[in-house]
Amino acid sequence: MKKIKNIFWVLSIFLLTLYSCSNDNDDSVKLLKKVVETSESGTSETTLFTYNETEIVRIDGAQKRTDFTYADGLITKTVTLNKTNQLLETIEYSYLEGKLVEVESLGNYRINYIHNSDKTVSYERFTIVSANQQVKEFYGTLYFENENLIKDERILDNTAVGVTSNYRITFDYDSKNNPLYNVLGYKKLLDRMETISSNNSLINTVIAATTNGDQVLSSANFYKSSFKYDSENYPTERVSETAIFANGNTGYLKTQYFY
Question: DSSP string of 101-114?
Answer without folding.
Answer: EEEEETTTEEEEEE
